[in-house]
Amino acid sequence: MPAYIAVQIEIDDPGTYERYRVLAPPSIAQYGGRYLVRGGASETLEGTWNPRRLVILEFPSVDAGRAWWGSPEYAEAKALRQSCAQTEMVLVDGVPVQP
Prior knowledge:
The chain has three helices and four strands. It is α+β, with helices and mostly antiparallel strands.
């Protein structure tokens, strides 16, 4: 069953964050993940939530998403992101793929 990581990011240091954007994708792909949303314009339809940057990743399973987040391949990029941005991140189960 697919799983998703939703990330709300507020970037404090754009130059450092740009280095993160180069480092992160190879580790995501290595764990079977891919970007579904990577920034871009957003519109609040209900409520007050208005993230400055929203990222959504898809992984083949919750285990794959969790393995990527804790992996040695992502460790350097994660430390870089944590040094230059404020992040809220959740891992959620997806809906089973229909035959």
